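Researcher: Structure prediction, please.
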Amino acid sequence: MKFQLRASVLATTLALATPLVMADTIKIAFIDPLSGSFAPVGQNILNSYQYIAEKANAEKWAGDNKIEVVGFDNKGSPQESLAVLKSAIDKGFRYITQGNGSGVGLALLDAVNKHNERNPGKEVVYLNYAAVDPDMTNNKCSFWHFRFDSNSDMKMEALTSFMAKDPKIKKVYIIGQNYSFGHQVTRAAKEYLARKRPDVQIVGDDLHPIGQVKDFSPYVAKIKASGADTVITGNWGADLALLIKSSKDSDLKANFYTYYAGTSGVPTAMGAAGIDRVKQVSYWHPNNETFSGKDIVEGFKTKHKDDYYTMATYSVIAMVAKAAKETQSIDPTKIAFAMEGMKIKSLNGDDVMRKVDHQIQQPLYISTWVKTNGKDVKFDQENTGMGWQTNQKIDAFVASQPSSCQMKRPG
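Model: Predicted structure follows.
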């Protein structure tokens, strides 16, 4: 009896003395449009995040910790985003993710920096999946910000290198949305084409209000009048879908070089008229060389009756989960330090979060809109019977760009 009692007391004492590894939840606030003209894109990406989070939880990517992604509607507005950010922080969210609009991204970046400076011990990490203004990992870089999409200069470098090989390109028209990203696309297109193909004429350059133009026919008329054989655009979502639709209605023969022709609504707007004429630069697409991500594409389609196209949602969850597992913590500061220089196996290969500026280094693809063929183009988009066919895969070290970031780290 005495021995049993002592053993029991000893066991209890040891249990109390041993720190318990408690499972916890990494709560990520998704701050992007869930209403208005860009809502289809926002909802698709929120669904994508939640689908990957469910997979990560089931497969214990973060060990015993769970990952939860909750949507917050910012209506596409920088001002609304700041109010939403405050609300999310007040509700206990220590991680935020955003991507639709670099104007919003820059506002959130500044707000997160100020919050973290004023609230030590309650830091927030910004996981950027698609706001691609190069400044965010250059002169405005921050320890608290990690970008999982290739920035617009990296993409333009790849796009113009591909274009430079085509002697049929003589006259280029640039059109984009009038905010920071649109300005960066215009600058880079002119600068890089001048360096690689000085014979190419820039015959037009338009910036239009983001999310406000309902009829692009006046812009398309200007493109036709210019004699452009090629259009470069950073437009996305409804702005690209409506531009493509007006181009189709006006029988514009120019080829389109795009960043986001795979976003919601655009494939349907293009239809057969876009075959062999619309190209995109992206960090992945479902008809990649090994069909990497095939199970996710098919599972997402079954569950949501929609297309999985934002692979950065996979990279974000994979890297945060790996950091949580390695540090045995969900503390934002510990997670941030762990993600610096981290390598993950994503759907496009081995990706690295560059320590110097927190800009992910990953391959890029140039692809063309074509009919599915059951061979190298198995997956279509939006049930059109058409999808993306790889023209070229650019290795990460080729797509890489230098950085002017002077990172300031805690402590």
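Model: The two ends are 55 Å apart (CA to CA).
Researcher: Thanks, that helps.
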